[in-house]
UniProtKB/TrEMBL annotation:
This is Protein HGH1 homolog. It comes from the Eukaryota. Residues 154-200 form the Protein HGH1 C-terminal domain. InterPro entries: ARM-type_fold, Hgh1, Protein_HGH1_C, Protein_HGH1_N. SUPFAM superfamilies: ARM repeat (SSF48371). It comes from Trichonephila clavata. Signal peptide: none annotated. Belongs to the HGH1 family. Residues 11-148 form the Protein HGH1 N-terminal domain.
Length: 233
């Protein structure tokens, strides 16, 4: 174990601005060996984003936010994708940041991994974010249920503000989640899609029934022991 890894284990790095800056630089590195060796930092950020004060520091770090938004892709490692997905979910629990997240383009980031190659009515298709329109026949959904579930939960959390709820309804999210529900085989993820569909079918926002304790799963440190070996690759 390197000295850097020891420090990470022993300290809350979010309380040390200089060390936190170094962590950001390591995590954002394009060097293949560094990316592979420190991919676990994605899980570290996922865990830290569950704390309100740390979550705000992440939201204020433009470079890290850009990375989280624009690097989430199917070719990345399972650990990195999972950490980013859970971080995105936790960021969406910050209701005061919903407008900023939507303006920054979080919807296609959350939605695209949940989509297959289904076709939609022209009117519904045109309401989807541009990145989610007219996908190739070979398009596949995110393969890990825990990641799909985190993304669905993130979408549900956006429904906790009227603007977030309206935005999802305006951009055909219901139709994507309806297709996901038909396809989904994982019980917990299917249940999460039903919660989201329930939000999206509400006509009057004032009658929305939010139950946060039913939406968000335990922090990443509590679920790591249940992750199968093949995920860590």
């Amino acid at each position: 174990m390197s000295r850097f890894e020891e420090v990470l284990q022993q300290n809350d790095c979010f309380s040390d601005a200089e060390l936190l800056d170094k962590i950001f630089k390591v995590f954002l590195s394009n060097h293949s060996e560094i990316k592979e060796k420190f991919q676990f930092l994605a899980l570290y950020f996922a865990n830290m984003s569950g704390y309100p004060s740390r979550k705000k520091l992440i939201l204020l770090n433009e470079k890290l936010m850009d990375y989280i938004f624009y690097s989430f892709n199917a070719s990345d490692t399972n650990v990195r994708r999972m950490g980013i997905a859970i971080t995105l979910r936790n960021l969406c629990s910050e209701q005061s940041s919903h407008v900023m997240l939507l303006e920054k383009g979080i919807l296609p980031v959350l939605l695209l991994p949940l989509m297959g190659s289904e076709e939609y009515d022209e009117e519904d298709m045109e309401k989807l974010p541009l990145e989610c329109q007219y996908l190739e026949d070979t398009k596949e959904r995110e393969r890990l249920p825990i990641i799909r579930r985190a993304l669905v939960q993130a979408l549900s959390l956006l429904c906790y503000t009227k603007r977030g709820w309206e935005y999802l309804k305006e951009h055909s999210v219901y139709y994507v989640i309806r297709e996901l529900h038909k396809w989904e085989a994982d019980f917990d993820t299917k249940e999460a899609t039903e919660t989201l569909v329930g939000f999206l079918l509400v006509i009057d926002y004032s009658k929305m029934n939010h139950k946060a304790d039913e939406l968000v799963t335990p922090s990443v440190t509590e679920i790591l022991k249940d992750i199968p070996d093949f995920v860590v690759s």
